[in-house]
Amino acid sequence: xxxxxxxxxxxxRAAACRGGTVRRAAAAHQAPSPQWLAVCSFSGSSxxxxxxxxxxxxxxxxxxxxxxxxxxxxxxxxxxIKGSMNIPLGDLVxxxxxxxxxxxxxxxxSLPEKSNILVFSCLAGIRSGKALKVAMSLGYDRAHHYTGGxxxxxxxxxxxxxx
Length: 163
Fold this sequence. Notes:
50% of the residues lie in helices and 12% in strands. The protein is globular, with a radius of gyration of 17 Å. By secondary structure, the chain is α/β, with parallel strands linked by helices. The chain has helices spanning 2-19, 21-27, 34-42, 52-58, 72-78, 92-96, 100-107, 126-137, 149-156; strands at 48-50, 64-68, 85-86, 117-121, 143-146. It has a 5-stranded parallel β-sheet with strand order 1-5-4-2-3. Residues 60-162 form the Rhodanese domain. It comes from Eleutherodactylus coqui (Puerto Rican coqui). This is Rhodanese domain-containing protein.
């Protein structure tokens, strides 16, 4: 039910933006209604969660983007899941709103498209859950988060070190 509510919340938010409701509320400096916040809070983390085995299967497919939302110092100190890109959680909104050219210059990879499957990872699944909500709010409705995070990954595989 949580996934259903999350998707409903994202769909209503997107429809409201297209219809002008959110724009009018923003122009009037109104906060979202208590009912809207209640529906969205019940949604938990929109999208789906994946475990190690599901992540391994997803990474075999084309168009899957693995995004590690830990801080840069964590990446340097502990390593990464091979093939992932690092966008710290605090930079996620601005990164997804960059032009494709600016994104590629900064992150050395292509800006994910709304049709891509995104998987967020962090250390233990907390920040990746927040990143999932951010991505869903920006229209990435094929987003997931790896609940075990980097800690779980290292129980199965050695991390890749970055210099």
